[in-house]
Amino acid sequence: MISRKINKVVLAYSGGLDTSAIIPWLKENYNVEVIAFVANIGQSKKDLFGIEKKALKSGASSCYVSDVKEEFIKNYVYPILKTGALYEGSYLLGTALARPIIAQKQVELALKVGADALCHGATGKGNDQIRFEMSYAALAPNLHVIAPWREWKLHSRESLLKYLEERNISTTATLEKIYSKDENIWHISTEGGLLEDPWNRSNKDCWSWTVEPEDAPEEAEYISLRLKEGSVVAINNQELNPLKCVEKLNQIGSKHAIGRIDIIENRLIGIKSRGCYETPGGTIITAAIKAIEQLVLDRESFQWREKIGLEMSLVVYDGRWFSPIRESLQAAADSLSSSINGEVILKLYKGSVTSVQKYSPNTLYSPEYATFGKDEVYKQSDADGFIRLFSLSSRIRAKNKLK
């Protein structure tokens, strides 16, 4: 508990079981006014329907809902795509990217209404508690932070349901809802249930957006993506803003079972966890960016971009969005992306996305040099001197061993 008197708390509210219980718990244990904040980042309409009324019935004095979908994709997702960040080689950071914008808007509201504290519903086992509180620390270090899961004695779904029932607070959560899902416009994740045993195969209940690969169309679909400075700006020659691009590609990709991963990842806190993640639009965009990078980036630049992507994946995953290292990595990626312009034709078929045609005005690929036929621009004898110099240290080392 915090020793200093707290009068007003802004809670990052989702309307789910945890945050529904947090509102009355805060009032009972801290005797505070609770203001609920909801960030609309593209979760299902079912989750958002009646959410203000639900928060008020749970005991909140007011509920603010902010639509941040467009800002989320434009200012958080698209910049990170330029870096090539993939956590542990496959995760497009769907949940991790959403937390800093939620925290930022929550802080802005707290400062506007004169709140003393911030509260989130992340558990003490997960990454989100770190992501929220790293953002709070960077944006509003003077505000107190309350993390109920690290304080209360309600440590199971059963206890939370009983707690709400005793206070006559309704919830749509039940004991039968065994999966934990996190959804935004960029991705949806599924954890818990049978996935807690890594030997269990995922089933249809573990996937929400994408069809089973076996049920995807028998005929491949070809789509065109146009890129400008590392960002998709048009689909099939139709210019769209970042949000509309993602929405359209999510729809197309889901139909073809694109963007599924079933992984066991290393959480920052040290626990391994398993999840089924779906990022159909993101997977398609990533394939398009990589296709143009192959044409444009020289060997050293590509290796540097790979290093940027690896480091950025850790920075975002660990909740260090509002930090100098994130800004520095982003600046480096933006510099490399200035020449990532062109068009890509992608083939979508039963879970796979393949670049089949690519063009860039900045390409370094030259058919005259690459041809296996006769050419007039490359002297193969020039390779002799290059190889002798490149292998010099190896030859010296071998001679030393013979002495």
TrEMBL record:
It is found in: Cytoplasm. One of its GO terms (molecular function) is ATP binding. It catalyses: L-citrulline + L-aspartate + ATP = 2-(N(omega)-L-arginino)succinate + AMP + diphosphate + H(+). CDD domains: ASS. L-aspartate binds at T123, N127, D128. It is an enzyme of class 6 (ligase). Its EC number is 6.3.4.5. ATP binds at A12, Y13, S14, G15, G16, L17, D18, T19, S20, A39, G121. One of its GO terms (cellular component) is cytoplasm. Residues 179-396 form the Arginosuccinate synthase C-terminal domain. L-citrulline binds at Y91, N127, R131, S180, S189, E265, Y277. Pathway: Amino-acid biosynthesis; L-arginine biosynthesis; L-arginine from L-ornithine and carbamoyl phosphate: step 2/3. The keyword Ligase applies. Residues 8-169 form the Arginosuccinate synthase-like N-terminal domain. The keyword Cytoplasm applies. InterPro entries: Arginosuc_syn_C, Arginosuc_syn_N, Arginosuc_synth, Arginosuc_synth_CS, Arginosuc_synth_type_1_subfam, AS_cat/multimer_dom_body, Rossmann-like_a/b/a_fold. GO terms for biological process: argininosuccinate metabolic process; L-arginine biosynthetic process; urea cycle. Keywords: Amino-acid biosynthesis, Arginine biosynthesis, ATP-binding, Cytoplasm, Ligase, Nucleotide-binding. Belongs to the argininosuccinate synthase family. Type 1 subfamily. Homotetramer. NCBIfam families: argG (TIGR00032), PRK00509.1 (NF001770). PANTHER family: ARGININOSUCCINATE SYNTHASE. This is Argininosuccinate synthase. It comes from Buchnera aphidicola (Brachycaudus cardui).
